[in-house]
Amino acid sequence: MDTVVHIPSGERGMIRVFNLDMRPEQARFLREPGALPQVLGIEDINLDQVEIFPISDLEDLGLVGYLTEGCAVPADHITADRERLMELTGHVMLIRSRAFGGEETRLTPAEQITFIGAYGEDQTHWTGAQIQADSAKPYSAPRLSPRANRAKARRIGASIFAVVMLLLLALLSKLVGWP
C-alpha cells in the first residue's frame, strides 16, 4: 500500500486511528521496542503515546465513544468517519501527536495497517508580535564580577549570623534573667 501519512512539525492534540488487519499475536508484538517503527517506516516512536487494543475491549462504549468520551475528541470531528469507525473489528492502533516528539514525520505503514483518520481538539493559535525590548533578550541582566558576588554572599551570611546571635542573646537573657 502506498499510503503516506504526514505529521507536521510541532503538531499537538491529534490522535491518528489505524485499523490493524493482523492476528492478535502480531498486534501484541507491535508493542515490543523496535517493532512498531519498523512497520510504520520510521526510525523511532514514543510507545507511551501509542495504544494498541482489540475493539472488543471497549464493549458497549465502542471506538466512537472511546474517542469522544475517553480522548476528548469533539463529536463533530468524528461525524464524517463515524460509520467507518463503528464498522471496525479486530485490533486498532491510536497514535497521539506526542509520539513523534514534535518533529515532522512521514509514516509509510505496512499493508496490514490502514489509516482511518486523524482527530483532535481545536487548537488555540497563540500569536503576537515579537518582543523587542533589551530586557527580553536572554542573559541581558548585568552580571556581577566574581569578587562582587563573594562580597554580596559575605554580607548576607554576616547578616544572618547577626540575627541568629541576637535571637540567642535575647533567649539567654530571658532564661538567666539579665536586665
TrEMBL record:
Keywords: Membrane, Transmembrane, Transmembrane helix. The chain crosses the membrane at residues 156-176. It comes from the Bacteria. This is Aspartate carbamoyltransferase catalytic subunit. It comes from Parasedimentitalea denitrificans.
